[in-house]
Structure formats: structure tokens, C-alpha cells
Specification:
Nuclear Transport Factor 2, Chain: A, 8-stranded mixed sheet, 3 helices
């Protein structure tokens, strides 16, 4: 029997919001231990510009560049399919540029998480699509 797509209850919503907040804080702080814990070893992280990183590559990128200065999210749509959560919603990143400046990148992100053997949530996929630039 196929698994139904359903909204989470309040407890699961709180858990997922907490792990997303932890991801944001860990990226800004370059807290590699926290990122290692919440990113699944199978992570596929596709940046807004199309470059795709594995977990190892993303951790190296975060450590060497420290690109994230701030991350904010808007209202999130959370859907569950079994022990998998799909989170979609607005994302704004304040980023450090390679030349030491700053830039803001906004768009919509889709994240996929799985419940691990300890009952926690781990990110397995991330994809950001930037908002279209006005013509």
C-alpha cells in the first residue's frame, strides 16, 4: 500500500523547525560538528547557482569560505511521507563574497530529511531556486 502524503503533527513540526534552525545557525557559525550530525552521509546540496556538493564538499566549502553571514526563512510548507519530510519555503541568505563583500540571495528552497535510527532528523537533499530577476 502506498504511503500517504500528510501534514505533520505539532511535535514533528517543532522537531523539523528546530533542526532547520540548527542548520541555519551551524552554517553561519561554521559549526562543522553540528552540520556533520544533521547532514546525512548521502546529502546532495545544490546551490542556487547550480553547483552540487556532497556532504564532505559542503563541509569543506563551509569551513574554508565561511560564506553564510545570515539565513532567514519564511513560512514553511512541511509534508511527510512515512519517515521522510519535504520542506518547501522562502529562503534569504546573506552571503560573504570571495572579495570580502556581502550579497543577498533570495529564493525558494526545498529540503528533504529522513528520520534516523535515533528518531532525529537528517538532511538528505537541499535545492535552492533563486527568484527570477526582473527584466
Amino acid at each position: 500500500m502506498p504511503l500517504a502524503v500528510r501534514p505533520p503533527d505539532q511535535q514533528v513540526t517543532t522537531e523539523l523547525q528546530a533542526v532547520e534552525h540548527r542548520r541555519q545557525r551551524a552554517l553561519v557559525d561554521a559549526d562543522l560538528e553540528a552540520l556533520d550530525e544533521i547532514f546525512d552521509d548521502s546529502l546532495v546540496h545544490t546551490h542556487a547557482h547550480g553547483i552540487t556538493h556532497t556532504k564532505t564538499q559542503l563541509l569543506e566549502h563551509t569551513a574554508s569560505r565561511r560564506p553564510y553571514l545570515g539565513i532567514t526563512r519564511g513560512e514553511l510548507l512541511i509534508r511527510l511521507v512515512g519517515d521522510v519530510a519535504v520542506i518547501t519555503g522562502p529562503l534569504t541568505n546573506l552571503l560573504r563574497t570571495p572579495d570580502g563583500g556581502e550579497r543577498t540571495l533570495a529564493g525558494v528552497a526545498t529540503q528533504i530529511l529522513r528520520r534516523d535510527e535515533r528518531g532525529g532528523w537528517r538532511f538528505i537533499s537541499f535545492q535552492m531556486t533563486p527568484y527570477a530577476q526582473p527584466k
